[in-house]
Amino acid sequence: MILGKKVLVIVPARGGSKGIKLKNLIKINGKTLIEHVANIVKKLKFVDLSVVSSDHKKILLNSIKTNVFKIVKRPKKLSGDKISDLKVLKHALKEVEKKYGNFDLVVMLQPTSVLRKPHHVYNAVLSLIKNKFDSVWSISETNLKFHPLKQLIVKKKLLNFYSKYGNKIIARQQLKPTYHRNGSVYVFKKNTLLKQNKILGNRSGYILIKEKQISIDDLSDYKMAKAEF
Hints:
The chain is an alpha/beta fold. The chain has helices spanning 33-42, 57-65, 85-100, 118-131, 190-194, 219-227; strands spanning 7-12, 27-28, 31-32, 49-54, 70-73, 105-108, 135-141, 152-155, 158-161, 179-189, 204-208.
């Protein structure tokens, strides 16, 4: 509990990843991605309960072995690669509250973001409570080379700007900073998920992480993440 708020951590970890088979069980420094999340959660003394939501037996068993997580068995209808985080979080939250009572805040920690630090999670939770946000996401600043106004699309084999304003950009000084979610931490009020039916709530804040962050989607990401340890 923190500032009177009861906190639930949900770790979504389905088994059907395509880029890397059973991605959540790959190892870095001898520990699975699930075990790396567990090490972070151990250091978060304000967390009341933490669970792993998965459809795969091996992931659930690995989660239990950490002695950090309870498990939520995810039904097949929530196991595809096009299932939203919102649906997974709502299912896990409802299942958990049947057994363990009510929670005020939900923290989502994706196993694939292995460079997060405990203070990133703490700062996100604290920001949500103190600023009365509906949700808080961790973000990183996007390199101006990849600014949306510099992006291109190909349609019917023809090249064009992604934005109609793209052709007006001459120098990078014309570009305002943009940001992207880095996947390290998401925090929500319970009612943001259940009543607003959103993960980016009506009143949302952020924490800007300046340290390098990697979300592991494929083997190249995995190699880069390993190099950081």
